[in-house]
Amino acid sequence: MSDLSAIVKAYDIRGVVGEQLNADLVRDFGAAFALLVKLDVPTAVVIGHDMRESSPGLAAAFADGVTSQGLDVINIGLASTDQLYFASGSLNLPGAMFTASHNPAKYNGIKLCRAGAAPVGQDSGLAEIRDTVSQGVPEFAGQRGSVTERDVLADYAAHLRKLVDLSANRRLKVVVDAGNGMGGHTVPTVFDGLPIDLVPMYFELDGSFPNHEANPLDPKNLVDLQAKVRETGADAGLAFDGDADRCFVVDERGEPVPPSAVTALVAVRELAKEPGGTIIHNLITSQAVPEIVREHGGQPVRTRVGHSFIKQEMATTDAIFGGEHSAHYYFRDFWKADTGMLAALHVLAALGEQAGPLSELTAQYSRYAASGEINSTVDDQVARQVAVKDAFAGRSGALVDELDGLTVRLEDGSWFNLRASNTEPLLRLNVEAADEQAVRALTDEVLAIVRD
């Protein structure tokens, strides 16, 4: 068996179909996953897939692997990733989602979870699955499992609408860009009956992504949504990524609302329901998030970047909500799993409960200027980080920590984080300061060392 480390990532399995992923290999992954979760004594595994051309076939191969080990399969068919998490949580069964999220059409992958949508990452089962496949999956002598189909979309939508009540809100016009991804599958059902006039964009499911990449983190993929919001006079715009687990928001002017502001807004709403609750934020979210959480009586907890760390910390602290700069939003009421759709409903509920525009509402949650993520290709990630640390560590009032990469907080309140990519020879820089001028100055200073 070839080396699988190139496709078994920190949080999922992902690779180029036909080159790195094929039906035989995916069948083995299904069998290995069944062996892993058998220890939890499940009755079945839930499987869903996105709209990519390769997804149904790979999902069927995985199901064949699962059933070869004596476990049943519940196939929920076309689904968003958070719809798969809903199925795993509500049925209390382990799950597998076939998607490569925002990656180009030639890719596919598998996101895995245990019963109750508990994450399976490198340290919680993925490495074990990789090793089982590499060494050869043992044959099972017992009876094969069976495959049944089940549609959970309506139940998923009903669960979300139960968590956020928009029924008494003023009517809103909302543009949604699904990017030809799974938002086109879930949004019509979730929004059905809500006081929302929906303006759909690119709802046709098409894994070749004919209009733009389904990656709203890249500003160029928001351009169509921004134009449509302005053109139609909409109250807000939403953009989903390929598997619709992340949601980006633009206001009535077509201006992007930073995910940190969305995190703070949702945190305040969740704290109103549970005063004193714990809110998780990763270390790249704006400093405004922990400030606002404390101001509203909550307990902010800072974590490393990545859903496995967020979910682990949510379990440890019994946090009610967690947010990341990448527009992943996690809810205790959703089995601690991430769902962009639920975050979007919170934003729309907050907007519809008052008369002002979204820009006015979110301004109170945006306090600082930020650089966004800046990538630099470097020969030696460690050496460049050390050079930056040495340059700032002796500065008066500077606080340095290495929870995740290098974070430096300066006396004037500005800060930056410099992290190495897990998969590429890159260093990723995020800077926040009081205003754009201060951001530019600090960014230039750090990059001068990184790119020396």
What would the average pLDDT be, to the nearest integer? 96
Helix content: 25-40%
What is the CATH architecture term of the largest domain?
3-Layer(aba) Sandwich
Specify the number of helices: 14
Identify low-pLDDT runs.
none
Strand fraction equals 15-25%
Radius of gyration: 22 Å
How would you classify the helix and strand content by structural class?
alpha/beta
Number of strands: 23
Total domain count: 4
Choose one word for the global shape.
globular
CATH topology of the largest domain: Alpha-D-Glucose-1,6-Bisphosphate, Chain A, domain 3
Distance between the termini: 41 Å
User: How many strands, which pairing sense, and closed or not: the largest β-sheet?
Assistant: 7 strands, mixed
Reading off the top of the CATH hierarchy, the class of the largest domain is best stated as Alpha Beta
Say which CATH homologous superfamily of the largest domain is assigned: Alpha-D-Glucose-1,6-Bisphosphate, subunit A, domain 3
Keywords: Isomerase, Magnesium, Metal-binding, Phosphoprotein
Domain Alpha-D-phosphohexomutase alpha/beta/alpha: 8-133, 155-254, 263-368
Protein name: Phosphomannomutase
EC number: 5.4.2.8
